[in-house]
Automatic annotation (TrEMBL), chain A:
Similarity comment: family membership: Belongs to the SKP1 family.
Record lineage: Eukaryota, Viridiplantae, Streptophyta, Embryophyta, Tracheophyta
GO molecular function: cullin family protein binding
Pfam family name, one: Skp1_POZ
A single GO cellular-component term on record: cytoplasm
Residues of the SKP1 component dimerisation domain: 102-148
GO terms for biological process, alphabetical: jasmonic acid mediated signaling pathway; protein ubiquitination; SCF-dependent proteasomal ubiquitin-dependent protein catabolic process
Name of the protein described by the UniProt record: SKP1-like protein
UniProtKB/TrEMBL annotation, chain B:
Name by which UniProt lists this protein: F-box protein SNE
Pfam families reported in the protein's UniProt record: F-box-like (PF12937)
Family annotation (PANTHER family): F-BOX PROTEIN SNE
GO terms under biological process: gibberellic acid mediated signaling pathway; regulation of gibberellic acid mediated signaling pathway
Recorded superkingdom: Eukaryota
F-box domain span: 12-52
Signal sequence region: none
GO cellular component, one term: SCF ubiquitin ligase complex
Gene3D superfamilies: 1.20.1280.50
């Protein structure tokens, strides 16, 4: 077992087989630097719990393919990313820091899917971005690829 | 971390997300703010978009594409129109799902077709249109 400590001083025990999906921790273990508790100063306990949940579920990725549990895993992933933007970004930052490739892929794809076909206004509102483009600059961008800004697919809702 | 996350403070993450968008959404995202506009002008995003459904990605075309105007232009002028045409050939019901179509149809032949069109576009611009 490997012990991880969040930045709000909570400790979690994780099976080595699960935790080595993190390249960062895998390297630490190989280098013999993971003898006691591994402090994670960038990750709070709420986010760490989510990450560990993912790691434990994906522990036997290879086996899942053999035993036909792929659908189960797919369903888990779909449920897993069903969270708010803030929480999603926290998990992305944690996955980035811990270097967990699959989790990074899953969460970034979920973020991209949420932006897909959204209107400019909707994207700004969802991510709380203030527009700092002038009207002329905006018009220039639109003229550059007008097809991107028209059509019935454009979704102006924020969710 | 916590509730103060602001995507524009984390450009690496922003790029990772934009890399996974389709062409239309990427076009819209260019209009969000100055930072996003700058990032979406980065040709490597468009390179990724042009060839992400082709494996392995075509080798040796990079220099040619860059010399003839870059991947963004390649997407706008050739890849997008070719994909749109292919989409129209699909039976009703699948038309809406460009992603499925792209995965099924975006083969090496379409890549070659796009690249050929790109060369034609370049010569039209430079040799025929350049004087006018």
């Amino acid at each position: 077992m490997v012990k991880l400590k969040s930045n709000d001083d909570k400790e979690f025990e994780v099976e080595e087989a699960a935790v080595i999906q993190s390249e960062m921790i895998k390297n630490m273990i190989e280098d013999g630097c993971a003898t006691s508790v591994i402090p994670l100063p960038n990750i709070d306990s709420k986010t760490l719990i989510k990450v560990i949940e993912y790691l434990n579920k994906h522990i036997n990725m290879g086996k899942a393919a053999e035993t036909g549990e792929e659908d189960d895993l797919k369903e888990f992933d779909e449920q897993f990313v069903n969270m708010g933007w803030e929480e999603l970004f926290d998990v992305i930052m944690a996955a980035n820091y811990l270097n967990i490739h699959e989790l990074m892929e899953l969460c970034c794809q979920s973020a991209a899917d949420r932006l897909k076909n959204k209107s400019v206004r909707a994207v700004r509102e969802m991510l709380k971005i203030t527009n700092d483009l002038t009207e002329e600059e905006e018009q220039e961008i639109i003229n550059d690829a007008p097809w991107a800004f028209e059509g019935p697919e454009i979704d102006d809702t924020v969710n | 971390m916590g509730s103060n996350f602001f995507i524009n403070d984390n450009q690496d993450v922003l790029i990772e997300i934009l890399k996974r968008l389709d062409g239309r959404s990427l076009g819209v995202c260019a209009c969000v703010c100055k930072l996003w506009c700058g990032i979406t002008r980065n040709d490597s995003l468009w390179e990724h978009l042009c060839f992400r459904h082709v494996s392995p990605p075509p080798e040796g075309v990079r220099t040619v594409v860059v010399a003839l105007g870059g991947y963004r232009r390649l997407y706008m002028v050739c890849v997008r129109p070719v994909l749109n045409r292919l989409r129209k050939w699909r039976p009703i019901g699948m038309e809406t799902d460009a992603e499925i179509v792209r995965r099924v149809y975006w083969t090496r032949h379409e890549v070659e077709l796009s690249l050929s069109l790109f060369c034609v576009d370049y010569y039209e611009r430079v040799l025929l249109g350049g004087g006018g």
